[in-house]
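Regression report. Comparing outputs from two consecutive submissions.

Submission 1:
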Amino acid sequence: MYWTEIVPALVLGAVVITLPGLAMGAVLGLRGIALVSRAPVFSVAMIGVAAVLEPMLSVPFTPLTIGAGCAVLTVGAWGVLRLVGGRRGRPDGVPAAPLGEQLLVAGAVGVAFIGIFLRVKQGIIVPDALAQLSDVIFHLNTVEYILDTENGSTLTVGASVSPGGAPSVYPAAWHDVHAIVHALSDLPIVASANATVIIVAALGWPLSLLALVWSLRSGEGPPQSSRLSFYAVGGGVAAAASAVAFPSTMLTWGVLYPTMLALALVPAVVAIVIELIRAVRRRQRREITSLTLQALIGASAVALAQPSALVSAAALLLPFLLGSLWAPESRPSPRLRSTAVSLGISLPVVVGLWILVRPPRERWWERGVLGHGETWGPTLQEAHALGDFLTSALGSGSVIWVFAVLTWLGAWACWRRPGSRWLVIAWLFSGFLWMVADSWDFSLARAVLVGPWYNDAFRLAAMTATPAALLAGYGAATIADRAEQLLGRAGPRIPTGWVRGALAAVMLGALLLTSSSRPARDAWGPVSRDYEVHEHSLLLTEDEYTVLEQVPQHVPEDEVILANPWGGGALAYSMVDREVSSRHVSTMVDSLYAPIVEGVGDPAQRDEVCRAVTATGAYWYLDFVDSADMGGAQDEVFAPLVEAAQSGLLDPVVVEGEVGLYRIDFC
């Protein structure tokens, strides 16, 4: 498949994650850069909420109905603001950005998109390459389930794990967005997944970063008119293309599509909360109403994508909240009282999220004093982890020195400005949490600190990318600012606009080159290894791909395929549209198919087996290999079918090497 073939899907995906949000943002009073930068978080929230509400009204999930649902939600927000009088006059408290700054922002988003796209392209090799990681089975099959059942509700989509699965809660915002892109583009489901990855990582995340850096520019940091803040707006966005930890860690571990979407939205949510706290301090009632609604929408977007990312937002906000305790007023004042009220609400929310939003196995108060943080263990020594964090390598084995030095320079520049110090502390704190996950031994302290992220260093590494990218942007801005000063002193009198435009272009070009440097390409090497197809691929080998492609030619649409999900056969559901006995690696064989799997090789159970085959239509077996050897109990369950295929009891229909499609024809 050629990359040009997914261009329409990329365009459609860009529309999906921006158009609904643009309408909602306009209703909320946002304009200009603030409107565009927050569009993705609003869009994802509305898509996810519409997908939850529509099944309650017997409305099927389709791109058209979800679009209509987003329109209804937008009208509802307009009505709420009309009722309470909360529409904002300006989105950020400053005049509209001049043309030069708008061009800088557009260029920065373009640089980020190109840089991240090129790295993702390098990582996944071809647009229809499958991530050879076990979680991809669930994610692709869930998208197929949403389109089959016309139900994308987070409240019930957990039923996708097996044909007879009971409805259960699972955050489905990623799957809803992917399902819409897939339905509109008509690409193979793997290609539409990769297109969605590119849109979220290369467009959604840079726009979200723009929301945060724009908020910092217009808030209590450097003055709006300063040179540094001008360059930092573009640098903070463009530097995202050089961040090692995101989105690469999400594509080589898991694969963690929902977490990637949630973390991409976190910067915009942080920006909204910061503006809300500032509005409370200033007692701006109309803005408080709009920003409160924006914060609720943003939080719902993250929660519907991956709730653990709410704790990531809390971790990045914590330094800002604690810094706000040191109010400049030395005596009681309305502003000080407003600050106390906002912190009295927000700090308990942060602590509550940290304690409660964690997987059941990480709830230490339920597990007692033993066995803390058993999900994922450490891999590095503390000194190694510290060095990796400071150089932004984060376990990748590759140091992009330009990015690292820019991050240090940006940290120094921000620390000199009291209003921006919290960003430096957020970077250090997120790095500390990553070090805890990747270098501390199992302990209660480790479970308390990093349990919300499953004690997983990959998720925490991805979180550090947001403050690191912004600091690197400030570092690049510091250099551009200094260059402008030197040119103003040494050179002939040149209009300031021309100087800034030229320096901004040089800055963006340098950041784009950094994202394509040899260290940056090396950092994506592990991703490429997880997308390659060969005879030892962990999920689908070359032979298994060949067999799977021929399944539709032999298996009727109303019949079922028995397959060990750890061997990759469960992907027949999403990739070739045939029902399988289990759609997720963690799901054991459904009771409907258990008599077949257990008794297929026992002549004494032949009648019972044939009754089950006839009743379920499970005439087929995909004999794929569990190359990762992680199936455990599943491998044991399917052992009778493996033996039956090898002994000639089953009829071979398509065989390639050691794998094949077999039919149960003795009934």
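Submission 2:
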Amino acid sequence: MSGGERTVVHLVRHGEVANPDGVLYGRLPGYHLSELGRRMAERVAGHLAGRDIAHVVASPLERAQETAEPIAAAHGLPTATDERLIEAANAFQGKEFGVGDGALRKPANWPLLRNPFRPSWGEPYVNQVVRMTAALAAARDAARGHEAVAVSHQLPIWVLRSHVERRRLWHDPRRRQCTLASLTSFAFDGDELVSITYDEPALDLVPVHLRAGAKPVRGAGGFGA
């Protein structure tokens, strides 16, 4: 379907999470936005306040739901939940995963690293592409002729974008262009994807070491989220 019906789906990465122990929280429950993360969510809500948002949906994890709340409230909308927007499954979930320490230093975990192309330590990249493509289409269909917001997580968003832009799915996590509280926006003419844009409305709130391309900091959490 095409012919002038323009729809935009903004894939939003959640804000900063309260994670004092520096674990890879993955799909674990109980990880909420930090106070800074809530400020990031409010910043995104303000950034989108003047847009024609007709649908807001989020991953079931608390950090995504809490990021979606002020966005939905600004437009008088409920927040729907889509399981397909969830974080990637990861065998290191719940473990310390910093640079130079944590799970990667333990020989018992090394077999999990045998295949970085699939990857062997978690949900296959291809599976993430399949579910995120379906979630993107569902959000588009729910907001035909308007705009939708779908709050998800760094790795699924980046893998979907890489697939659409015809890049390989395996990559250096430090090079992902998907900062906390960022927007990766997919514009459609009918069902046809016509453009992808990227914006960082809360960049000044993001700690420097968590920005795209930054040098990792010892003990500073883990991949994704």
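Expected: both submissions complete independently.
Actual: both completed, but the second showed a warning that disappeared on reload.
Relevant detail on submission 2: The radius of gyration is 17 Å.
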